[in-house]
Amino acid sequence: MCRHIAYLGPSVALGEVLVTPPHALVRQSWEPRRQRNGTVNADGFGVGWYAGDDPAPGRYRRAGPVWGDETFADLARVVRSTALLGAVRDATWAGADGEAAAAPFAEGTLLFSHNGAVRDWPGSLAPLAGTLPPAALLSLAARSDSALLWALVRHRITAGDDIARAVADTVLDVAAAAPGSRLNLLLTDGSTIVATAWGDSLWYLDEPGGRTVVASEPYDDDPSWHEVPDRTLLAATRTDVLLTPLKEPAA
After folding, report:
1. 32 within some domain
2. Which candidate among 56, 69, 70, 215 keeps its CA 20 to 30 Å from the CA of 25?
3. What is an example of a Pfam family matching this protein (predicted)?
4. Residue 145 belongs to some domain of the structure
């Protein structure tokens, strides 16, 4: 379920990443090519981007499908950034959270998205939720598995973990608590992208000139796209991409 993408590189209009390519994120909202679960990503969307010298990103999120939002079309045409994260949300069960459930989630300099689903939610993660401070639970952005995953990642970062370790250890903890979950996470601070391939597709594109794209699926047919093996942590900057295998938790 869901599709997401992150970009680092020279300043571009948001639409150059999210709209213009032939199989861009907007088209993936109704016609994904490699989505393994779900078919239509119409239950919300969002984009976060970094502007100027402000380290905290701006966001635009809505509860409906991206293809019908004229304001997003205008923003994507004129807003430029050197780093962004966009996501479209798979059609799912009814809920009252609206755009609060749409990625990217944000805090400080960070943007976060989850492509997947936690098995046997919410009961399977009750023990992990219990490790969070009460304030973290009371301030969840939405009543969803993705919002709780974001809280778990944030808690590790606040405790001193770097963003790659926080993402990797959260995935391993959740996979142990809820086997069979799909846990493709995507996180950026505007200078680094961290992502996991765990149960769904993940690809990356690194090009000359310091341009790096990490996405659920390629937005075009450029042969330079690389598929990330399942059970892998990706950490990327504008010039380097590092892949680290993640070990399946013991049964």
Report:
1. yes
2. 56
3. GATase_4
4. yes
Domain for residue 40, yes or no? yes
pLDDT of residue 95: 59
Give the integer Cα–Cα distance in Å for 24 and 17: 7
CA distance 223 to 52: 32
Provide the residue range defining the domain that includes 216: 3-245
Catalytically active residues, by annotation:
2
From residue 168, alpha-carbon distances to 126, 174, 194 in Å are 20, 10, 9
At 155, which CATH number? 3.60.20.10
In which residue are the tokens 């993640």 written? 246
User: Cβ atoms within 10 A of the Cβ of 150, count?
Assistant: 26
Q: pTM for this structure?
A: 0.96
Give how many domains the chain has, as a whole number: 1
DSSP assignment of 154-188 equals: HHHHHTT--HHHHHHHHHHHHHHHSTT-EEEEEEE
Give 130-176 pLDDT, tens digit per residue. 999 999 999 999 999 999 999 999 999 999 999 999 999 999 999 99
Interhelix angle 163-177/145-158, rounded to 10 degrees, is 130
pLDDT digits (tens, 9 = 90+) for 52-84: 889 999 999 999 999 999 999 999 999 999 999
